[in-house]
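Sanity check. The docking grid for S-adenosylmethionine depends on where the pocket ends up, so I'm generating a full predicted complex first rather than guessing from homology. Inputs follow.
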Amino acid sequence: MKFSYNSVALVFDIIDKIFFRLGKNNPRKAIYNLIPNSNINILDVCTGTGSNVIKIAKDKPNVKITGIDNSQGMLSVGLKKISKYKLNNINFLLQDAVDMQFENKFFDYAVISLILHEMDKNTAYKTLQNTHNVLKDNGKVIIFEFIYPENNKFFPNLAFKLIKKVEDDNLFPEFLSYDKEKYFMDNGFKIEKAHKFQYTVIYELVKL
Ligand SMILES: C[S@@+](CC[C@H](N)C(=O)[O-])C[C@H]1O[C@@H](n2cnc3c(N)ncnc32)[C@H](O)[C@@H]1O
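Predicted complex below; grid placement will be based on this.
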């Protein structure tokens, strides 16, 4: 990413609506649908403003969510939403994804959304290994990431070009080129399903 998250925190949710929530078949809705409304602990790694988890906390009162991020600016926007909707099943913490401070095997689910492509491989692997440690045996991970657009439609291609412009010139193409089966297997996760969208993908992983 060519700018700091603190500097874009106030406009992040507007950008999010344009790029990830247009149309019926939107990936944020798919992530929402993958989380059951049962008595589970969820960790949202690099939660940002809580784009995935605020609605889950609101509509699925049985889940308990912890979001971590290292940008106070992003978390502050998320915290305002938590207090606006008076949610008591979600908590945000200022914490680094490569140095998580949780009990081992505590969480049932983890969400890692739109961050691995911005991390160098070493940091991404540390993030996945930390996530592995804090997940229960057979715990699930939902990954939301970019892929190259697979058709010539105007909007997805334009959106992808704009995203590419703001991403790191080396890390972004490098991430897109990885063999994802191997990438996740290296860190103890197996891809169970992949759901493709216009320029994004959701992987459902299971901890091995
Ligand atoms: C593109 S945003 C994605 C936010 C959210 N997951 C979503 O899907 O909208 C990436 C977030 O990762 C956070 N981040 C980057 N590196 C991090 C790290 N090492 N530890 C914790 N958070 C980090 C940034 O502050 C930012 O909020």
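Relevant for the grid: The CA atoms of residues 32 and 56 lie 6 Å apart.
Also worth noting: The first strand starts at residue 41 and ends at 45.
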